[in-house]
Amino acid sequence: MTQAPTRPVITEDTAEDVDRLIGAVAHDIAEDPFPVKGLDHIRFYVGNAKQSAHYYSTAFGMTCVAYRGPEQGYRDHAEYVLISGSARFVFVGGVHGNAEATQHYARHGDGIADIALEVPDVDKAYQHAIDQGATGLGEPHDVTDDNGTVRVAAIATYGETRHTLIDRSRYSGPFLPGFVTRAPIVERPAGGPKRYFQAVDHVVGNVELGRMDEWVEFYKRVMGFTNMAEFVGDDIATDYSALMSKVVASGTRKVKFPLNEPAVSKRKSQIDEYLEFYGGSGAQHIAVATNDIIASVDAMRAAGVEFLDTPDSYYDDQELRARIGQVRVPIEELKARKILVDRDEDGYLLQIFTKPVQDRPTVFFELIERHGSLGFGKGNFKALFEAIEREQERRGNL
Ligand SMILES: [Fe+2]
Question: Which CATH number covers residue 294?
Answer without folding.
Answer: 3.10.180.10
